[in-house]
Amino acid sequence: MSATRGGTGRRIVLWRHGQTSWNLERRFQGSTDIELTETGVAQARRAARLLAALQPDAIVASDLKRAAATAGELAALTGHDVAHDAALRETYAGEWQGLTHDEIVARYGEQYAAWKRGEPVRRGGGELETEVADRAAPVVLEHADKLPENGTLVVVSHGGTIRTTIGRLLGLESRHWESLGGLSNCCWSVLGEGARGWRLMEHNAGTLPEPVLGDDD
Fold first, then answer.
1. Residue 6 above 90 pLDDT?
2. What GO molecular function terms would the record report (predicted)?
C-alpha cells in the first residue's frame, strides 16, 4: 500500500441516508422501504456537495429508496454510477419494524435491554447484528479492493448497518459495537487504511452535533 496523499491510503466513507418521516416519529424502519422527506432530500443535496469535494472514485448503496435517493444526489455531482446492493440494507427486525421506540420498550422491554447490554439478540425475531455485518462488510471490502491507490469509496447505507460494518472492519468484538455512537441523518464516518488495517478517522461528521433520530434504520 502506498500512502502518498496525506499518508492515509484508501478511504471508505460510510454515509447514512437523509431524513424520513419514520425517523421523525422514532419509528423503527429496518428493511421497510421508506422514502426521504423533503428535508431528507435537502440534507442529501447539502451533504453531497461536501462529499463531492473528496473526489470519490466509486459509490455503492443500499437498494432501499432512502439510501438510493441519497446516493443519487452524489452521483449527480460526480458522474459516477451507483452500484446498488441489497446486502447493505438495514437490519431486518421482524416484529419491531413499524413500531415506535416507546412501543418497542413497552412490548419488548427485556429484549431491548438485552440488546443494549451488548447481548446477541434477534430483535423482533429478525437478524443478529453479527449477521448484518456478515452480509454488509464483505460488500464494502469488495468495492474498497477495487479502488486505485489512495482512492475513496462512498458507501450509502443505514445507521445500524454502518455501525456493525465499522465494528467488523475495526476488528471490535460485537458486544462493543454499541459503543460506536449513532449517525445523524446524512452524516458519515470515515475509515482510513493504515499499516495495521482500517482505522476510524472521523465519526458522525458533516454537521454540528444533532440528535440521532432512529439510529437503526
1. no
2. hydrolase activity
